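User: Let's play a game. I give you a shape written as tokens, and you guess the letters that built it. Ready? Here's round one.
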């Protein structure tokens, strides 16, 4: 049996318990929650699956060295002790990301240069040649994390941040991060057992993430590449097996509805839903939430209204008052979850939440609140055995330190640890102790050629179509050209 090794999954602050649960269900061992990260152990298959299957991870790191560094010289010496020939093959390029919380090392760029120098000098002394640095598309990505004098040097197995799923064609202003959207859905406990509604859907991120969760589809299925595919020990056969395994996918008997008052948002959401091959599961229409009427089927609402920060409305507080009024009069017997930023906005909703969960949306310290809605008066509802707060909600709310003392909604994270301004190209973690698509036939001889990869992965879209024929379902669009999609997507990646 292959030996297990240490791994770290990075995430948003507030999503750590959800990520830990995902890892446990995936079969990871020694799962431990840290700050913006979850450490675990596993083998190569675990690492591949973590990148491919997890909905709430930003990046998967594989630590290769822990050491103490009290000075730049110490760090240089420790990095140089590692045999880099086993990680960086001849002719390959590498890059280094640094995350630093230390009085001694205040400049992360300085740390990056020191690590690079140690690696390059070792190669020059042992082989007479040196590997090149590539920031944009390196063969090997390294991550060094320093907390005071404790350093962890890791291989980055993900490459581009895992929140960049690959289905997003276009975006509206201030789009919700895919990982946060998935985390919110998983926190709500929804698993596809009812209809799902996002009445202010923007570019459709919550809708698409809900469909992936409902069908238990791995979010990595849309990705063009992972960093581990360029590692010397990459196992093509093992990854093909993981990629083509659809045994855990399931049918979804309900439906997902998205609405937005802005027709541009509606068109953008439809485009993204189509790119993900999910139009049979998701319906998007132009509709103002003030005209919302009670759905015929039992439903769950998850919504991310404007906060008045990056996006505002002419009358922000009136919007929240309208949200509360619609939920109270048209959504009895169901559950709604709302992500927002300002206490005064939540106050305008006028409903008592049964659960409040602190999360960060980019650098904004937000809350994700659950509202259990019922018909008529509270007294009558309770007399008939109705439950507003479950035992689990009460336990959750009773936990100490859920919120900071004297917490203010406007309080932001310090500049250097602001979740990378919501973009999260490289996420930081603070705790040191670990702190669709015809069966894809990937050709290892051509796997480094991006054009070939794009063309090859373009065949994926037929895969869902053919699978659904076998299962008798009609859940996915057929025939979308993934290769065209990948070409269009590259422009968006530059902007985002």
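Assistant: Ready! My guess for every position:
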């Amino acid at each position: 049996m292959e030996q297990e090794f240490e791994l770290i999954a990075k995430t948003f602050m507030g999503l750590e318990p959800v990520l830990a649960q995902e890892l446990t269900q995936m079969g990871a061992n020694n799962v431990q929650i840290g700050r913006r990260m979850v450490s675990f152990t596993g083998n190569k298959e675990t690492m591949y699956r973590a990148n491919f299957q997890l909905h709430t991870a930003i990046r998967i790191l594989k630590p290769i060295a822990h050491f103490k560094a009290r000075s730049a010289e110490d760090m240089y010496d420790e990095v140089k002790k590692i045999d880099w020939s086993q990680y960086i093959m001849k002719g390959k390029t590498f890059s280094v990301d640094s995350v630093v919380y230390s009085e001694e090392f205040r400049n992360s760029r300085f740390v990056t240069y020191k690590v690079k120098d140690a690696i390059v000098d070792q190669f020059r002394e042992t082989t007479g040649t040196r590997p090149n640095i590539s920031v944009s598309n390196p063969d090997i990505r390294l991550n060094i994390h320093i907390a005071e004098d404790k350093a962890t040097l890791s291989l980055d197995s993900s490459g581009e941040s895992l929140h960049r799923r690959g289905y997003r064609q276009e975006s509206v202003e201030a789009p919700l991060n895919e990982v946060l959207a998935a985390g919110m859905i998983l926190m709500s406990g929804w698993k596809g057992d009812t209809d799902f509604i996002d009445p202010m859907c923007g570019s459709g991120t919550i809708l698409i993430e809900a469909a992936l969760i409902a069908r238990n589809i791995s979010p990595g299925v849309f990705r063009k590449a992972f960093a581990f595919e360029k590692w010397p020990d990459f196992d093509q056969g093992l990854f093909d097996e993981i990629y083509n395994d659809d045994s855990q996918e399931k049918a979804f008997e309900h439906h997902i509805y998205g609405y937005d008052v802005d027709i541009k948002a509606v068109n953008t959401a439809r485009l993204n839903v189509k790119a993900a091959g999910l139009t049979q599961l998701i319906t998007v229409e132009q509709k103002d939430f003030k005209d919302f009427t009670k759905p015929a089927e039992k439903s769950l609402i998850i919504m991310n209204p404007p906060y008045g920060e990056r996006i505002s409305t002419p009358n922000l507080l009136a919007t929240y008052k309208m949200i509360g009024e619609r939920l109270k009069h048209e959504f009895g017997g169901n559950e709604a979850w709302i992500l927002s930023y300002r206490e005064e906005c939540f106050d305008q909703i006028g409903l008592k939440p049964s659960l409040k969960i602190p999360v960060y949306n980019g650098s904004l310290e937000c809350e994700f609140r659950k509202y259990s809605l019922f018909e008529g008066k509270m007294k009558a509802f309770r007399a008939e055995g109705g439950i507003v707060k479950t035992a689990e909600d009460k336990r959750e709310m009773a936990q100490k330190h859920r919120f900071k003392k004297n917490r203010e909604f406007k309080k932001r994270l310090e500049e250097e640890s602001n979740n990378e301004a919501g973009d999260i190209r490289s996420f930081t973690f603070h705790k040191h102790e670990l702190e669709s698509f015809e069966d894809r036939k990937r050709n290892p001889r051509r796997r480094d050629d991006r054009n070939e990869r794009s063309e090859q992965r373009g065949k994926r879209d037929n895969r869902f179509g053919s699978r659904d024929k076998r299962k008798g379902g009609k859940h996915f669009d057929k025939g979308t050209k993934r290769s065209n999609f990948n070409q269009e997507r590259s422009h968006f990646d530059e902007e985002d």
